[in-house]
Design brief:
single chain; alpha/beta; Rossmann fold; 2 domains; 11 helices
Length: 218
């Protein structure tokens, strides 16, 4: 089976040590993710920031990652993949220098294309005060009535309340999480996550089985 650009972007995103900024530098030089994976080690090492270990990982990518396993997990758990060229990929995120090359999502993907004009981020402390609770409820209720899509992080505290309040007001909400979609955190929010997906969606740049790590949280 021939490799598509989406396949190649997924492979590059799964390789350790690369990251979106470095991948984009390579894309600018080679023109496509497929061309990157088809390049030899000598050519790759001529690029800034690409040492022997990274060049070796790219040229021998099949020893490090299994894209078919990731696709199968996605299929089994009803997860969709968006590469950075997909029309549903959020435009504001696409324009960031460190935008992920691939997003994993579950729920209503078409909601993402509305975020550019109607997305409103609500984030706050995990240790929410009574004042914070009141303000969050008032703010999200008003936002929903005005037609905004509430974006938050599914964390404890303000994030959780922002999602719940939006749903209670029949609004649409999107959760951006820092773990893999099969390792949602905190665990007590898994029922909330299912509710979010009825009208909105949950997205992550992390591979499906990536466990929670504070370095990954947006």
């Amino acid at each position: 089976m021939s490799m598509t650009e989406k396949d190649a972007l997924l492979i590059l995103s799964l390789l350790p040590g690369l990251g979106p900024v470095r991948i984009k530098q390579l894309l600018k030089h080679f023109g496509s993710a497929v061309e990157i994976l088809q390049s030899d080690e000598k050519t790759l090492r001529q690029q800034p920031g690409i040492g022997k270990s990274i060049a070796d990982a790219i040229t021998h990518w099949s020893e490090h990652v299994n894209p078919q396993k990731e696709y199968e997990l996605c299929r089994r758990h009803h997860v969709w993949l968006l590469d950075i060229h997909d029309p549903h990929y959020p435009q504001a995120l696409r324009e960031r220098r460190d935008a992920p090359l691939v997003l994993y999502g579950v729920g209503q993907r078409e909601v993402l294309s509305r975020l550019e004009d109607r997305g409103l981020a609500v984030v706050g402390s995990r240790a929410m005060t009574l004042y914070g609770e009141r303000v969050t409820r008032q703010f999200t209720t008003s936002a929903v009535k005005s037609g905004w899509i509430v974006v938050s992080g599914l964390a404890r505290g303000v994030d959780t309340l922002a999602h719940r309040s939006t749903l209670e007001n029949a609004g649409v909400t999107v959760a951006v999480v820092g773990s893999g979609l099969l390792e949602l955190y905190p665990p007590e929010n898994r029922d909330l996550a299912r509710e979010i997906c009825q009208r909105g969606c949950i997205i992550s740049e992390q591979p499906l089985t990536m466990k929670p790590d504070r370095r990954h949280f947006p």
